[in-house]
Specification:
mainly alpha
Length: about 375
């Protein structure tokens, strides 16, 4: 069997019954893909497969991703502009995930210069629009530079249906930086308006529901920061009503609303409530998302709520274990939850608890 077949088997088994026993399959796929990369001189097909496999292997896997991207870009393989763009983007992103911010900024600047020569203006938005990467500029004290690039590109790009996704993600990142990292609320208000305008360009947009809910989360954060609890409660109620209405639409066989969209809504609202320590309100939303979708990060956030409100050891441990083991929606997070756990204040009383620490995968 090749790496692709073993990975497919691992994912299939893991989805039905997440277990530490399944990790042997993942490690087999890992060993095979390393050999296949060399045998094919880093063909794009094998590089993309390796990217997926490495994403389930914690920090070690992220380092391997970076090495694979560099070797692919340096290889004599024929490369389409789109494949080069993808590899460069992943190189920058995985440096950001590992918080190697100085190197990340250097690579992102080189990537932007390459894209300016080889790709469309719409692609330039994609070079810069990721929030994990943008945080690196803030951490290095270079947020002003990031925003100079942001305002320049957003003012230059002509709004179209095809670039709406890139524009809204770029505006989303700018809004998030101003709200969560820089605490510049007047500027954030302006960007929330820009974000809202993009979202509402077309209410029939296939991604409208997803970004509308993220808009609600930004509004909630702004109201919380400003102590505007009247508008906070109003917006929470509006978001929950939208969530319920979309459940009804889905149950009435409305194909425009997928169950994943609804679960994402539940997760988004629940997360906002959780950060405000409104755990009991968040829990039914996370429970819905777990029952109907079950991504690792939702299990993790639910575990926070359970421990904060109930100190239910069995349920908390089970959800932390599932957060670590799940594959769906968990690329780049598996084997990395221990770091998050050790920074989560709700878990401070069990940071040194061996039973809790034992649920986390070692970096394979």
């Amino acid at each position: 069997m090749n790496a692709a077949a073993i990975l497919k088997k691992f994912i299939c088994i893991n989805e039905s019954s997440p277990s530490l026993k399944n990790e042997k399959l993942l490690l087999n796929a890992y060993e095979l893909i390393k050999k296949e990369l060399i045998d094919t001189n880093y063909s794009i097909e094998r590089v993309r497969l390796a990217h997926k496999i490495f994403g389930y292997l914690g920090d070690k896997g992220l380092h391997e991703r970076i090495e694979a991207m560099r070797k692919y870009l340096q290889s004599n393989q024929p490369k389409s502009p789109e494949d080069q763009f993808w590899a460069n983007w992943e190189l920058v992103d995985n440096l950001a995930l590992l918080k190697k911010y100085k190197m990340m900024i250097e690579e992102q600047r080189l990537f932007l210069a390459w894209a300016q020569k080889n790709m469309s203006l719409d692609h330039l938005l994609k070079v810069m629009y990721d929030s994990t990467q943008a945080i690196g500029w803030v951490e290095e004290g270079r947020s002003d530079e990031w925003f100079e690039i942001y305002y320049d590109l957003m003012n230059r790009v002509k709004p179209t249906e095809s670039n709406r996704n890139a524009r809204v993600l770029y505006a989303e990142t700018a809004t998030g930086l101003l709200l969560f990292n820089l605490n510049k609320y007047p500027e954030a208000t302006v960007e929330i308006k820009r974000y809202s305008d993009i979202v509402h360009e077309d209410d029939s947009w296939i991604e409208y529901i997803k970004f509308l809910m993220r808009l609600r989360s930004f509004q909630l954060e702004l109201y919380s920061a400003q102590g505007d609890w009247l508008n906070y409660e109003k917006t929470v109620n509006e978001a929950i009503l939208e969530f319920i209405n979309n459940i009804n639409r889905h149950n009435n066989n409305n194909d425009s609303v997928s169950i994943d969209d609804i679960c994402d809504m539940a997760h988004e609202i629940g997360t906002c409530l959780m950060w405000e320590k409104r755990y009991k309100q968040a829990m039914p939303l996370f429970e819905f998302a777990i029952q109907n979708q079950g991504t690792g990060i939702t299990h993790y956030f639910y575990a926070i709520c359970v421990w904060a409100t109930q100190k239910n050891r069995k349920a908390t441990l089970e959800n932390l274990k599932l957060a670590e083991m799940k594959v769906k929606g968990n690329g780049g997070l598996r084997s990395r939850y221990k770091k998050m756990f050790l920074e989560q204040k709700e878990f401070s009383d069990v940071w040194e608890d061996d039973e809790f620490l034992s649920v986390f995968l070692i970096n394979h």
